[in-house]
Design a protein that fits this description.
heterodimer, A: mainly alpha, 2 domains, B: 85 residues, 4 helices, 68% helix
């Protein structure tokens, strides 16, 4: 049975899995339009009530999650209008994707005119598995990634949460947020690169 | 397409292309260049592995959830929806 069939069949566990599995990205999406976490929680809750009301009429012209996110975005926007936060995701995505960016600081590489190794690593990349003694354990690294995610620009944060935390596929993210595939890829690249860089800094601190 | 006929992909370029490589979004030409570079460069191989590790760790991060009261209310709403049909 598909997830949709299970929901229509009255499977409460399937509903709970869907609610929990998408809570983080739904809250982030809502929070982009409204001014507080509390209102974002309300918007997500209202969205689920609207989903239940519409579930029997849902015609599967999009994926279930895409349909749910369109309801969410509409609700969040309606709330957001009062707070004058109505910039579309496609605009925000293009803006973030257009900012200058380097996955790794330029000074970590030899200059482009180096006689022997132009554009290669200037020094060996520090290995994470050689951090002595206080090697970051799984809990510490997860906490650190959580902090790095929270510090990302908003669209990069949403895309990485959807993709790497909640396990969405790229086309579904593009549909749910109405952003282009090219921008989705750029945002994901920047997000992952930034979180990696932040972990690297943390590993380096552990070495001191 | 053979890598020896193509311009080398320096490390600095690789770190910007690696996400598209993971996504299968590189051109055939750039995929060949990237893989040829990886075969030769330990540091870039480590870099790639660190990015994969970053993605794996992200998969087990505790992220924001709905407040328990909101979640309970939704469970009730679902049951009511089931009962009403």
């Amino acid at each position: 049975m598909t997830l949709l069939e299970r929901l229509r069949d009255g499977d409460g566990a399937a509903f709970a899995t869907l609610v929990d599995g998408n809570a983080a990205s739904m809250l982030r999406v809502a929070r982009m339009h409204v001014s507080s976490d509390a209102v974002a929680q309300e918007v997500v809750q209202e969205t689920w009530l609207a989903v239940l009301q519409g579930l029997d009429r849902f015609e599967e012209r999009s994926s279930l999650r895409t349909w749910i996110f369109h309801i969410l975005v509409n609700r969040a926007r309606t709330r957001g209008v009062r707070e004058a936060r109505t910039v579309p995701f496609s605009t925000l995505a293009a803006r973030e994707a257009g900012e200058p960016f380097a996955a790794v600081d330029a000074d970590r590489f030899l200059p482009a005119d180096d006689a022997e190794w132009p554009g290669h690593w200037a020094a060996p990349l520090p290995r994470w598995d050689e951090v002595p003694e206080r090697h970051l354990d799984a809990r510490e690294t997860a906490t650190s990634v959580r902090g790095a995610l929270a510090a990302l620009p908003p669209m990069q944060r949403i895309v990485m949460i959807m993709r790497d935390v909640e396990g969405w596929e790229a086309p579904e993210i593009c549909n749910a947020l109405d952003i282009s595939e090219a921008n989705q890829r750029v945002l994901l690249h920047r997000a992952r690169s930034r979180v990696r860089a932040s972990l690297e800094r943390e590993m380096a601190d552990e070495r001191l | 397409m053979s890598a020896s006929e193509l311009p080398e992909m320096p490390c600095r370029e690789l770190v910007e292309r690696v996400s598209d490589y993971f996504e299968g979004a590189l051109s055939e030409r750039d995929r060949v260049r990237l893989e040829a570079h990886l075969a030769e460069c330990d540091d870039c191989s480590i870099y790639l592995e660190q990015l994969r590790e970053t993605m794996r760790i992200a998969g087990r991060v505790e992220v924001d959830r709905l407040r328990p009261e909101a979640r309970d209310a939704l469970t009730e709403a679902f049951d009511a929806w089931v009962a009403s049909r």
